[in-house]
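Handoff note, outgoing to incoming analyst
You'll be picking up this chain. Sequence as last confirmed:
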Amino acid sequence: MADRAVRRIQRIVSTEVTDCPRLFTLEQTQSAWIKRVRAYEHHYRLTLWCEHEGYEHPWNPATYEQNPPKEWFAQIAPYAALVFRTLQLIVPLAGAVAVASLPQVQQDQAKAHLQIMSALVADLPDDVKRRPADGGLGDATGQLSTAEGHALRALRATLLEHDPLRGFGGMRRVLTPSGDLLWVCPDHHSYYDPGLPAIP
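Most recent structure output, in case you need it:
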């Protein structure tokens, strides 16, 4: 059930953005008082996730340190909340449920990333944390809300600003046998492209 919901969300998101990874976690790092402008500046660390089915995990080489304007987090919040709910289906934070397909080190890392992001999401207004009206992950509309679509495009703009060459830590876009577009890390790319056969 969770796998189907995750695939559905990824298909919906793919109708909006295909040219950069879409799963991520976010943490607020140490804030600083900037004397020259007498402003309090927030720092964020954004880490993209490999989207390989059943093995979704944070990919540390695709981590971006940011000092965005104060309104930035509010701009991406509706999509960040949706991603957080989706990742909770993949990597439950509570209980004895293990992510059997992931190695233990990656399970621990994924849970730690989500735990940190949970504090940011918990501070969001209730109307941002919850999807409107019919709004569960199985939403019958088959599309992002207006706010989620706008937030996803704002996230895309941020990624392309910080990574204009679109390296994304070596992650690459692949097409699954079912026709879904995913972004996967180098460790999982061979599942989709085994490379040229060895010639004796």
